[in-house]
Every structure is written in C-alpha cells, then in structure tokens.
Amino acid sequence: MFYSYTIYLFLGIIQNRIISLFIIYHFKMNIHEYQAKDILKSYGVRVQEGVVATTPQAALDAARQLNAETGTKWFVIKAQIHAGGRGKGGGIKLAKNYEQVTELSKQILGMQLVTPQTGPEGKKVHKILVAEDVYYPGESEPKEYYLSIMLDRAKGCNVIIASTEGGMDIEAVAHDTPEKIIKEWIDPSVGLQPFQARKIAFAFGLEGNAFKEMVKFLFALYKAYESIDASLFEINPVLKTSDNKILAVDAKVNLDDNSLFRHKELADMRDLAEEDPLEVEASASGLNYVKLDGNVGCMVNGAGLAMATMDIIKLSGGEPANFLDVGGGANAQTVEAGFRIILQDPNVKAILINIFGGIVRCDRVANGVVEAYKKIGDIKVPIIVRLQGTNAEEGAKILGESGLKITPAILLKDAAQRVKEAMA
C-alpha cells in the first residue's frame, strides 16, 4: 500500500490515524510501477522504458531488448511490490552489464523486501522491472522533480502538487521546507489550463525545450488521470534528462475502486498476491474489510459507525484488529463470512458487533449471528453485540434466548465497558 504525502495532506485533520489509514486504503486499488507506466505511456506521457520479468533469464532477455530499442548499456533492476521506499530496502539496483543484470535479478527475485511501508514482515518479490538508464551524461545535469495529482475534497476539485525536490521523501520536504511545495487547483468546469502548466514549469526553473516538454508532460499526465478515474498519481521523480527531455522515472497510480466497472482492463491489473489474503477473501464475499494490527475484531454496518466503533474500542483500552463493514443487506451468510475472516486473525481476543438497524433489521442480524455461531462451532473469544434501531428489542431477545455465549450491549458506553471487561 502506498501512503503518500499527497494523501496525508488531505487527511491530516483526522485525529484517529487508524481511520485515516482506512480511508486511504478503501477507496483505491494499487497497481505495480510497470502497469502504471504502461497506462501513462498510452496517454502520451514519456516514461523510463522497461520490461517486466519474473526470472533471471527473462530479465537478461529484457535487458537485451532494451539495448536494441533504446541503446542503453546500463540497466536499473526494480522490485515490483505494492510499497514505496524500495531503494532503501535494496529493491532497486543498477546493473552496468548483462552479467550484473543476471546476478542482481537473482538477488532481488524471491527476496522478502522490507521497506518503511511494508512493515517488518516485508513483501516477497515475484516480479522485477528491467528499465533503461536515463541518467546519462549530456549538455546539462539531470534534475529530479516531484509531481502528483489527487482530489482535494475540501475544495471539490483536483489539485496538482509539485516540488523541485524530486526523488526525496516528500514528507520531509513538506516538513522542513514547505515553501518548496507548489499547489495548483484545477477548475473542473474547464480543466487544466495552459497558464497553470506554464506556472508549474516556471516554478521548476525550466526554460527552452525542457520548459515546453514539461508543459506537454503535465497535460498528458492530467488527461491520463481524469480518463482512468484515478484517485492518485504520484510521479517521483519526474526527470529532466541531460538532453532536456521530461519523463517519469517512477509512477504510483491508485485507481478508484468505485469506478472500476467502467475500466475492466484496469480491474484485471489487480495483483492478489500483493494483497492481504483475508482482504481478498472478504472481497470475494462482498465485504469491506481492512486488516489492522489490534486485538479487538469488529463487525459493523456502515463506514461512519465503523469509525465510531474503532474509537469505542480504543477508549476501552483495546486496539481495533480490523475494519469490517457488512453493509446494509447483512444476512446469515455475510455475518458468517465476517466471523470466519475475523477469527482467522490470531491477534483477535474479542469481537464487537455493532449494528444500527436502518435498512437492515436487527432481528435479521441477530438470526445471522446465531446461525453463524452454530455453524462455526466452538468460538473461544468473547463476543459483544450491540443492536440499535429497527427491531432492536426482537434482536436482543433472539440473542438472549439462543443460549450462546454472547454479551449484549445497548449504549455505546456499555459496549466499551463490555469490551474492556472481555479484555481484562
């Protein structure tokens, strides 16, 4: 998962970091760098050329292909995982000949790559991108820039965020030298205007052919962003080569989950091997699930109620183990699927079910809980159930007469207290 600074700018006002992580994750689909570059290239964005490979032999063949097509004699071997900071973890290496291409490919393929964004467990590398060397000598020094595009929900329009400090941790740049962060908001009724693209190119200090190339690059990039319904473009770095070409050396593209029905070819880019197995299983069951690092599993209907539920868990002294929204049409099947997914997490010490009966009836949920409990069998962790809304009394009665080890709660503070007692 990519947690870029551009997203953090938008979410910085949210106090509960767990909630902000959910918002970041839930509305996007990650893709690999090589896939992102293929998309950008199809819209006329100049990119660092590369060929994806899954074996050392394929990597060697890719290097030879690149040499024939671009003339490059050096090659960059890049691990393809859904996380940033790959270079810091040893996932990006420079090969100066074909022998090194094979050697470095063997080192990176199959490695458990640990970066600041993967956590200590890291991610296994199944693919690499063999890319051309674009830092060649020429008439001027290469220069790196930062560009991203995202939706600014507060202003109701897209914003381009740029910086002259490309290739660096943009978080550090924003913290230490905020004056080097440039923002340009795009009026949705007219789109990106020429003066705005020129303004960014001027801010980068470009002139001559490099200036024209940057303006062209920005228009192509923005067209790609809008056309594929992306939720984030982050190009870091954007490179001005020594012969004044502008190209994307790296590319992070996040796609809006809600728009994928319009882009089947993009939906097919999903790499399940890069996702948490429980999240994949939940998706197959039609559940909205995000695994977290806590000890209290929660099952809720509605994102807003889920956020409040996670606050309750934290106030009780616990930590949320997941976000799980069963939706408005919760039934025995969805509740059972939710139970099975939550119980697969060995860190879960208690489960809190918090349902507000608006569209869904509480008695229907209660029946689902009872059926799921009986089907799964011996559930060893405490289960706290809070039902409010339509047919809440009937639901409470069903749970009370079930004979199962389920602790009822009525108010939010009651639920928090029950969780606290269960964790004691």
From TrEMBL:
Superkingdom to which the source organism belongs: Bacteria
Provide one Gene Ontology cellular component.
cytosol
Q: Which UniProt keywords apply?
A: ATP-binding, Ligase, Magnesium, Membrane, Metal-binding, Nucleotide-binding, Transmembrane, Transmembrane helix, Tricarboxylic acid cycle
Residue ranges of the TM segments: 6-27
Matching entries from PANTHER family are given as: SUCCINATE--COA LIGASE [GDP-FORMING] SUBUNIT BETA, MITOCHONDRIAL, SUCCINYL-COA SYNTHETASE BETA CHAIN
NCBIfam families per the UniProt record, alphabetical: PRK00696.1, sucCoAbeta
* Name this protein carries in UniProt: Succinate--CoA ligase [ADP-forming] subunit beta
